[in-house]
Automatic annotation (TrEMBL):
The organism of origin for this protein: Larkinella rosea
Membership in a protein family: Belongs to the free Met sulfoxide reductase family.
The protein's name: GAF domain-containing protein
PANTHER family, sorted: FREE METHIONINE-R-SULFOXIDE REDUCTASE, GAF/PUTATIVE CYTOSKELETAL PROTEIN
Residue span(s) of domain GAF: 43-159
One annotated GO molecular function: L-methionine-(R)-S-oxide reductase activity
InterPro entries: GAF, GAF-like_dom_sf, Phosphatase_reg/MetRdx
GO cellular component: cytosol
Amino acid sequence: MAETLVLPKTAQRQEIYESLLPQLQALTEGEPDLVANLANISAALKEAFGFFWIGFYLKKDNQLVLGPFQGPIACTRIDFGKGVCGASYSRKKTILVPDVEQFPGHIACSSDSKSEIVVPVFDKTGEVAMVLDVDSDQLNDFSELDVQELEKVAALITSFL
Ligand code: SME
């Protein structure tokens, strides 16, 4: 496909997600390189929504290690069970954090991050292969819509793992 995103001129996240998902599918289809695909997915989510930080932490041995991302530099390694990312990995569940200061053990890579959502990405055996982390510089910026739609992005990634 052409390497250009076509996005609706709206601030409605639902419409943007609806337009974006098939484009992410087309963008990654037939490309076997994981880093290339995660890099383009990060860039597309950043371009579509302007998120403060969006990226991946990949399970490598006994830690989560920073992968492709868009935004300010970030912590490189997170232990399982630590922070929102490590908690999502260990619980195998999406975690929505309306106010990062209220999440015990939150890891502040940037003091500008105010709310966060972390979605586990499963491999085909049902193990968590990585987490998708999205940070906002606004409090309470994520909702069930983001949970549902970012879980669809995670499912797309599972399809090519
Ligand atoms: N806040 C995350 C750490 C990663 S950064 O937000 C990019 C956490 O608590 O796991």
